[in-house]
Design a protein that fits this description.
Number of strands: 3
Strand order of the largest sheet: 1-2-3
Structural class: mainly alpha
Helix content: 55-70%
Low-confidence stretches: 1-35
Order of helices and strands: EEEHHH
Largest sheet: 3 strands, antiparallel
Strand content: under 5%
Radius of gyration: 21 Å
Length: 187
């Protein structure tokens, strides 16, 4: 499957129930609950320039979505941290069961934030990867049947190295996002 059709995993902010308490935070895939991990890989095969451009746009849009989730999780993680620290500060008067629950919520929101952050970075790397591939294609087209100059050859290698770097980045961030999601599901 191509990268664009693969399910993208995204952390969604917890639903706040009527009494103002936030319900269990969930990691969702396009609105559906899941504990599944993303198996997405970038499309490294042959694409047309239009397809490369479409991939760039896809990942840019995806990054925007993850940025929104990231911001929401950041707020929830801060609140969870404050709640935990406030209860912990009570010392011997702290309710052990409540403290345990607060600690769990704090850890889960932190993991959801981490997963969101890595998904955001992976999307950014995906966009940069396809942008580098597109630049390489544009240069190839510009050179045409001529013999590339040493400067053009150097430029071409630069685009290839950049694409390879972003591909590695994408895969590393996806692995970290999956690790956080897996841990989130275990808590």
């Amino acid at each position: 499957t191509s990268a664009s059709s693969a399910m993208t995993q995204c952390a969604s902010p917890p639903v706040v129930s009527s009494n103002g308490q936030s319900a269990e935070p969930l990691l969702t895939v396009r609105g559906k609950e899941t504990s599944g991990l993303s198996k997405r890989v970038l499309h490294t095969g042959q694409l047309t320039q239009e397809q490369q451009q479409a991939k760039v746009q896809y990942y840019v849009d995806e990054a925007r979505g993850h940025h929104t989730a990231l911001h929401a999780w950041h707020i929830h993680a801060d609140h969870a941290d404050d709640d935990y620290e406030t209860e912990k500060a009570k010392g011997k008067n702290a309710d052990p069961e409540h403290l345990k629950q607060l600690k769990n919520t704090k850890e889960r929101t932190d993991l959801a934030y981490q997963a969101s952050l890595h998904h955001y970075n992976a999307s950014g790397a995906g966009a940069k990867y396809h942008r580098a591939r597109l630049a390489e294609m544009n240069l190839t087209e510009m050179i045409g049947d001529s013999t590339p100059t040493p400067a053009q050859e150097q430029q071409m290698q630069g685009h290839r190295d950049e694409a390879a770097r972003h591909l590695k980045d994408h895969d590393e961030h996806m692995a970290k996002a999956n690790a956080a999601t897996k841990k989130f599901g275990e808590l």
